[in-house]
Inverse folding.
């Protein structure tokens, strides 16, 4: 990061502002006369539900989109960005919510793609590798720059995205959900980087659905609702209740554990499960783990990044091979069954990365919803459109998807509604058990509450639910039982009366966070 960024700054010094900005798409008004300021050397946090207009506003400020009306001022002067490259040339960079990496290229190539470091003999790969290694080290990751991005876990891929933005000496850095796949310790490191950047005079725009987390880094808060600014305040004048009230118009929590019925017999049985991560040699990432989930029961898996949560769930669903042990559904051994065969048997998976593994971006909302159930609509090699449409319409209503209809393209939906499509697709298969890996990643508090209400209702109907999360508050929302993993093993179990401190201590998070802070 350039020494030129070091300067004497004032918290009230506005570097960039949007003035009466509107944006329309057809008959839809995404932004309605927005006034928004970014202050030099400060963190401005933008809060709002999915579909509130946050990403649209950020795309305008970073040159990806142009406003329908209104204007942008940089250093007090009107400016119009022709492209994101033009905005970057003015010192504005953005980290998008959905990763925009090339998975088949290396960490080094992704960081310097399109602005390679050149020497007398062409691209200086050695210098690129040196800088890439240092950037990743600054973000707490000891990663070989030649490693392909597709070989990294999702959290590390997100850090590569952050490193790419940091490699440009930006005056303004927009971070759209930068921590959605990061562990607590990785978040601590990122917050340290943000503090260093603001001390140098860099202006940060921070967008996050992790509300409590965002409060720790915020200097100035802005709430966007239905395309309009509903509130602005300094950090000292706000709390969680203030944010939620202005976001959704009421203060509510994620819900309480569903009760009022008896659990049935075990539906999903995991016995002595062992999973080997090829990147770690013969070391098991899941080590002889046993767990039952009963009919009507909601079980939450909690653990730090690397605890084995994702590997366990993907192994259960058939995406990762079993090194030892067995997975049973209603007593039936799932060994040797493909993912499709397991779905047909009644075992469904909602993956962590909805963009890569949960949705087909070139398809409509309806076709995504019916995709996992498509076999039941085949009649003599043809699809039964009326039956498929009935399922699509029922799914849209059943999981509260906000869409113009089944014919809308999936890319037109907000992140929260896309996640509900993934969940609706799997629920449409009428599963006996569903496993969900970080089901609320990257969605707002309103969509999050709807997702957990859907799961709670299905549990009341007898569905066995197993979900993982990296947010302690989500452990305490609807789970009947909380399982804490550490290094691939179960280290603690709690009921719904567990405390946040007890869960974090069992996972080792409290100790790690203290060490990171030190």
């Amino acid at each position: 990061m350039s020494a030129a960024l070091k300067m004497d700054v004032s918290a009230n010094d506005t570097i960039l502002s949007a003035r009466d900005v509107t944006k329309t798409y057809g008959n839809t008004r995404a932004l309605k006369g927005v006034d928004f300021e970014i202050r030099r050397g400060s963190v401005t946090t933008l809060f709002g539900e999915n579909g509130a207009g946050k990403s649209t506003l950020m795309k305008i400020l970073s040159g990806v989109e142009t406003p329908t009306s209104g204007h942008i001022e940089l250093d007090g002067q009107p400016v119009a960005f022709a492209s994101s490259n033009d905005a970057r040339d003015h010192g504005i960079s953005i980290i998008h919510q959905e990763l925009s990496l090339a998975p088949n290229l290396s960490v080094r190539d992704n960081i310097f793609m399109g602005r390679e470091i050149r020497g007398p003999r062409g691209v200086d790969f050695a210098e690129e590798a040196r800088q890439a290694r240092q950037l990743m080290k600054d973000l707490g990751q000891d990663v070989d720059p030649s490693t392909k991005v597709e070989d990294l876990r999702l959290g590390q891929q997100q850090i590569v995205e952050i490193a790419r933005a940091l490699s440009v000496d930006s005056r303004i850095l927009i971070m759209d959900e930068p921590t959605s796949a990061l562990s607590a310790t990785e978040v601590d490191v990122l917050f340290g980087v943000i503090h260093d950047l603001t001390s140098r005079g860099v202006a940060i725009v921070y967008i996050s659905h992790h509300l409590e987390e965002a409060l720790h880094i915020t200097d100035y808060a802005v709430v966007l609702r239905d395309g309009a600014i509903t509130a602005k305040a300094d950090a000292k004048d706000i709390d969680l209740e203030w944010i939620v009230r202005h976001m959704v118009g009421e203060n509510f929590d994620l819900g309480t554990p569903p009760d009022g019925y008896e659990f049935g017999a075990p539906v999903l049985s995991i016995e002595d499960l062992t999973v080997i991560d090829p990147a770690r040699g013969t070391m098991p990432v899941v080590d002889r783990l046993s767990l039952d989930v009963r009919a009507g029961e909601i079980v939450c898996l909690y653990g730090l990044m690397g605890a084995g949560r994702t590997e366990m769930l993907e192994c259960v669903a058939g995406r990762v091979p079993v090194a030892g042990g067995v997975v049973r559904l209603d007593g039936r051994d799932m060994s040797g069954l493909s993912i499709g065969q397991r779905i047909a048997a009644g075992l469904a998976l909602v993956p962590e990365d909805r963009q890569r593994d949960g949705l087909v971006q070139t398809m409509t909302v309806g076709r995504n919803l019916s995709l996992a159930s498509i076999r039941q609509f085949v009649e003599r090699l043809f699809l039964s459109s009326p039956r498929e449409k009935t399922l699509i319409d029922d799914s849209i209503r059943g999981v509260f998807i906000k869409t113009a209809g089944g014919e809308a393209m999936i890319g037109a939906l907000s992140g929260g509604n896309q996640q509900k499509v993934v969940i609706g697709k799997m629920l449409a298969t009428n599963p006996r058990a569903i496993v969900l890996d970080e089901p609320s990643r990257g969605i707002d508090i309103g969509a999050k509450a709807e997702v957990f209400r859907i799961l709670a209702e299905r549990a009341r109907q007898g569905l066995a639910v197993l979900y993982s999360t990296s947010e302690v508050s989500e452990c305490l929302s609807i789970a009947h039982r909380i399982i804490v993993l550490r290094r691939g093993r179960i280290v603690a179990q709690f009921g719904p009366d567990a405390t946040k401190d007890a869960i974090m201590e069992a996972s080792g998070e409290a100790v790690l966070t203290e060490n990171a802070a030190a």
